[in-house]
Design goal:
Elements (H helix, E strand, L loop, with lengths): L2 H12 L8 E6 L3 E6 L6 E5 L23 H12 L6 H6 L12 H4 L6 H23 L14 H14 L8 H14 L1 E2 L12 E2 L15 E6 L2 E6 L18 H7 L11 E6 L3 H10 L8 H4 L24 E6 L7 H10 L11 H23 L13 H35 L4 E2 L1 H7 L1 H11 L13 H15 L7 H11 L7 H10 L12 H13 L1 E5 L4 E6 L3
Antiparallel strand pairs: 1-2, 3-7, 4-5, 6-7, 8-9, 10-12, 11-12
The protein binds S-adenosylmethionine (SAM).
S-adenosylmethionine (SAM) binds next to strand 2 and helix 7.
GO molecular function: protein-lysine N-methyltransferase activity
GO cellular component, one term: nucleus
InterPro entries: SET_dom, SET_dom_sf, SETD3_SETD6_MTase
Length: 565
């Protein structure tokens, strides 16, 4: 048995904890302590009596919780006990890891390994939240009132003064920020939900379970947690063979959560997800909440499985737009084929041109799909920029470098999967609705008159070599103009004429873009027979804009007209 574990195991047993004697505790370079079976075992049960469970019952006086699910006092209590060498829980406290690897306390050089990823972009925000939890608590108790604003620290100072000491559990005062950060990370990586032993407690309330918290995580371990006369029990009924590790199961966690909270990753993690945060004006959110019940705006609790991350903020109701004022968070993964649907619904809604259009119509659906794909592509590009100038150095821990690499790979895998799914969905929609879609390629193939006569005629006063078209959007505008001017829509394109007629019934203000296009093509036009007015071009321009979507590929984009239902 590993020397460090020996003391805590002996102590826990002496207090009534039970764990099969065939289980050994060994030290692993990267995982820390591991529980390994010395013999084949069936029906493993570990029982932790209430006397050694650390939780609200111990957090009295200034450490007492102020509201349901408040764990802040417990964090301070933990660092207080550690600094005073608490006798009662000494063996437990001494056995806590001497080095934490959560990405929150990596060095600035190591943070570079996460550049361009969601985790890399959110670390400072996460630390800032913990910092304000700390300042609020100590100021409320008059322990200090001179703490600095978090934004005043530069990364090096933050690391040297707080993160490095916190990662090693070394601090001079129990009430310092490094002490608090250490406790926070200990709870984050080792705590269990209290509701298992007290169903009436708040679901965000947590406890520490000496001995049981020596079990590492496997997402495939089938374990049961339950309460037995106040004790916390874990049972694993799958059977474990000699030499195998006995695992707990921390829940369906992706590498982002594992790396930020626990400081490790799992290769090919099936629970990997990528978070997309969409920030919208409050008015838009209000409209969705009031008028679009089919558009689901998820809340964090819809995704969170573990008590420690459950929101304890009961002030905000999710039916209230302000709940989403800092952004709506969507999580996408490779496991749930439907995870893109709520996102696509929202992007379709945002692609609606006016009140007469419904977000479920084909055009906004296709435009929404393009915008969502572009947003995912941008994330993919950002996460693909590898920090190549970072050479292995003393400032970069090889294990952390490995973790960052696996995490990044997982993020890219999820994004690639989502982009491929959207491409497939687009392909299906194209096949299903091919008679409602018209692109320039089809027009040029079928409408020889436009190519040979009508288009050149629009520019008969110009040197033909000088006329050039920037994109398919412009050409579609010119096609509409030519067809209307010459009254020459082919039978198969009759729907365009009809749709156009409906569209010009609405009031049209001259847009800046239409004006620019007009001056580019027609301002010097002299011939009266083909003269195009700014109003005509504006109508055609707005028609194409409101009745098409633009499909973007890596180097080009294509505008496609859509027949409304
Ligand atoms: C609840 S503790 C488990 C006991 C821990 N090994 C120890 O030495 O105290 C959680 C920590 O164990 C490590 N850990 C747990 N599961 C792991 C895994 N599957 N791979 C690598 N490290 C793991 C991480 O450092 C994590 O923060």
């Amino acid at each position: 048995m590993s020397q460090e574990a020996f003391e805590v195991v002996q102590w826990a047993r002496s207090k009534g904890a039970s764990i099969p004697s065939q289980i050994d505790f060994v030290r692993d370079e990267s995982k820390g302590i591991c529980t390994v079976c010395k013999e084949d075992l069936q029906g493993v049960k570990i029982r932790i009596p209430s006397s050694i469970i650390i939780g609200r019952k111990d957090a009295r006086g200034i450490f007492a919780p102020r509201y349901d699910g408040d764990n802040t006092g417990l964090k301070f209590l933990l660092s207080f006990w550690k600094s005073e060498n608490n006798v009662e829980f000494g063996p437990y406290l001494r056995n806590l890891p001497s080095q934490l690897d959560s990405a929150l306390i990596w060095s600035p050089d190591e943070w570079q390994l996460l550049r361009g990823t969601n985790l890399g972009n959110s670390i400072k925000e996460k630390l800032s939240t913990i910092y304000s939890e700390w300042t609020t608590w100590i100021k409320d108790r008059g322990l200090s009132n001179d703490s600095l604003d978090f934004d005043e620290f530069d990364d090096q100072q933050l690391y040297q003064d707080f993160l490095k000491p916190a990662s090693r559990g070394q601090f001079s005062s129990w009430s310092s920020f490094s002490a608090f950060l250490w406790s926070h990370l200990i709870l984050l990586s080792r705590a269990f939900p209290e509701y298992i032993i007290d169903p009436h407690c708040h679901e965000g309330s947590v406890i520490l379970l000496p001995l049981l918290d020596l079990l590492n995580h496997s997402a495939h371990s089938k374990v049961q947690w339950y309460s037995e006369e106040g004790a916390f029990c874990l049972e694993q009924n799958d059977g474990i063979t000699k030499g195998q590790e006995l695992f707990n199961n921390y829940g369906a966690k992706g590498n982002e959560e594992l790396l930020a909270g626990y400081g490790f990753v799992q290769e090919d993690n099936e629970f990997d997800y990528v978070a997309l945060k969409i920030k919208l004006p409050l008015k838009t959110i209000e409209n969705i909440l009031e008028n679009e019940p089919r558009i689901k705006l998820p809340t964090l609790d819809d995704y969170t499985t573990f008590a420690f991350e459950k929101s304890t903020d009961k002030k905000k109701d999710k039916a209230d737009a302000s709940y989403f004022e800092n952004g709506i968070r969507f999580f996408i993964n490779t496991q749930n084929e439907n995870c893109l649907n709520p996102l696509l619904d929202l992007f379709s809604y945002l692609s609606k041109t006016d009140v007469t259009e419904n977000w479920t119509d084909l055009r906004p659906r296709l435009q929404g799909l393009q915008s969502l794909r572009a947003a995912l592509k941008l994330k993919q590009d950002q996460a693909s920029i590898l920090p190549d100038e970072l050479k292995p150095s003393a400032a970069i821990h090889p294990y952390r470098q490995y973790c960052a690499g696996i995490y990044r790979q997982g993020q890219l895998r999820v994004l690639k999967h989502a982009i491929t799914s959207l491409k497939q969905l687009e392909k299906d929609l194209f096949t299903q609705h091919k008679h409602q879609l018209l692109n320039l390629k089809k027009i040029l193939k079928d409408d020889a008159r436009f190519v040979d006569e009508e288009l050149p005629n629009l520019f008969q006063d110009k040197d033909q070599d000088e006329v050039s078209f920037d994109d398919t959007f412009e050409l579609l505008v010119l096609w509409i103009l030519a067809k209307l001017k010459n009254d020459s829509f082919q039978e198969k394109h009759e729907w365009i004429r009809k749709q156009f007629k409906v569209s010009i019934n609405k009031e049209q203000t001259i847009t800046e873009e239409a004006e620019l296009l007009y001056s580019h093509f027609f301002s010097e036009q002299q011939t009266t027979t083909t003269k195009i007015t700014l109003e005509e071009l504006n109508d055609a321009y707005n028609f194409v804009l409101n009745n098409s979507f633009t499909r973007s590929a890596s180097s080009s984009s294509e505008t496609i007209l859509v027949q409304s239902a």
